[in-house]
Every structure is written in C-alpha cells, then in structure tokens.
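D-alanine--D-alanine ligase, pasting as requested.
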Amino acid sequence: MKKKIALITGGYTGEHVVSLKSAAVVEKTIDTSLYDVFKILIYPNDWHFLSPEGGKIPVDLNDFSILVNDQKITFDGVFNILHGSPGEDGKLAGYFDMLGLPYTTCDALTSAITMNKGYTKSIVKDIDELYVARSLQLFKNSEENREKILKDLRLPLFIKPNSGGSSIGMSKVKDPNELKDALDKAFAEDKQVLVEEFVSGREFSIGVYAAKGKTTVLPATEIVSSKEFFDFEAKYSPGVTEEITPGRMSEEEVSRVNRIIEQVYSRLNCKGAVRIDYFLEHETGKFYFIEINTVPGQTETSLISQQVRAIGMEVRDFYNELIEEMFI
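Structure tokens follow.
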C-alpha cells in the first residue's frame, strides 16, 4: 500500500510565495507510484487541503487529518517545504513531534536555533577551518545601538533580520548615513537584527543531506551576481545572477569545504536536506560561514535541484531518499 504524504506549503511570512513555487515542483516531481501526496496549505487560522473540485477542506488539528468524500485521511509522514514560519522555525516540527508524525526536515530544536543567524554562528564558530565575520546582534533599534555599530564594526556592513529568509529586509551599508534606514528596514521584518562586517570573497551555496546511513555533500554552486549582494531580486529574478554548478574551486578548496560542511551538519544535528551559504575570502581563501537554510527551495532552478542533477541523480530519486529517511 502506498504511503500517504502531506506536502505542506504556504506560511505566515513573505516567503510563502517561494514556498508555493517549491511545492508545485515537488508535487509534480514526487514519485506517485510510491506515495499518495496531499498538498496542505498552512496560513494563519487557515489550514486546508484543496479538493480536486477546488473546495477547501479544513485540517483537523487534533490529529492533522482531513475528511475527503466522508473518508478520514491521516498521513504516514510530512514533506515539509514551508519556508519561514512556522515550517522552518521549529513550530510545526514541535506540533508534529507531539502527534508522533515524522517529517523530512530538522527537529524542533535545530530548526529554532538555525532560524536565528546569530545563535547559529555562536554554535559553529569554533569548528576547525571555519570563520565568521565580526558582528553585533541587536534587540533594539536605538540611537545608542547605531553609535555602538559605528564604534565596534568597520564599514561596509550587512544589515539583516536575524530570523528572516530569502534576503528580505537585508541591506548593505557603505556610508554611516545609510545605517538608520537599513536598520529600520531590518527591524520591520524581525525583532532581532544581525549587523556584520563585509567579507570580500567569492560566494557559494552548498547542499548537504543524510540518507541511507551516510551524509552526502553536494557540489557547491558559485553565485555571481550583477547586484552588490545576493538579495531577493538576485535570488528570484531571471538574469540577475549567474549560478555556476559545480562552483569554481580547487581540489583543496573542495576537500576543505566538504570537511567543514559535514561538521556544520553534524554540530547542528541537522536532518534531511539543508543548504549552507559561505564565502571564500579573496585574499586568504578562508571559509566564512554566512547562514544555513533548513528548508531550502525546491523549484526547478533552485540550487539544491541543480546540485542533485550535477551528481547524476534524478530529483525524484532525491525526494524518495528524503522521504524514506524520515521513517528510519
């Protein structure tokens, strides 16, 4: 008998648009000879399944079930493709844990920690060969904090919401006069803001996942943007960014990066597929950790999909491995 899989998408943040695009690709790519897939849309006070006729069928939150043609449907597992809150910050993971329902992504604790860029860096910063940019984590948008930034850190700076994704609310500040607007923009998205010194380097993004008893580090993608940094427009507008997979790295760099990535995955107790962004500094070649994404995009052109195909693997088989891993 085929397993019933809930494909969850939507979300409570601006990233829901990306989540819907990812879900559409997963839905048409997933192996329906093995799984019956039900796409569940999750919005504030509105969790539902769309019937083939277009009707909204509410989810019973007592056991995460739906009623279709008077038949109660419960699920064997959850394929999580909900970016941002509540799919990426641990809230849904905690809910599914209480129900005893397995899911394809990191557990509640790892999800909550990794959603916070500042806390994540504190955990990984002592990994051998890994570096982090000097930074300040702010909990208040005040004149006092603006003065502290200019005193303790060197321009240029990256200002970003501490728990946001898809580069929403992110700015690069090269002049002190730009600082207030950048902080206002970031604090509009989050109650915590991370301010980092700029690292001049080549930017990469790399996928890693655990399945069949081993951790697989995928080929890194090199990000070459025509914009100053990899912001929302650069990520999702065609032609703005060149993505080179595999990225241009020497054998030594590939070996070193893979060592570091495996340690990051292990240190943070990750599960399923995650994507890690990093710089290789121009002058030194040092590996600078940027952030981790525990629910990476799964559109046809997403970085993870490119990297899976680069190792000669079908994306459908990759999804099979992620799903089967959650039942182990």
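Note for the archive: The domain at 3-103 is CATH 3.40.50.20 (Rossmann fold).
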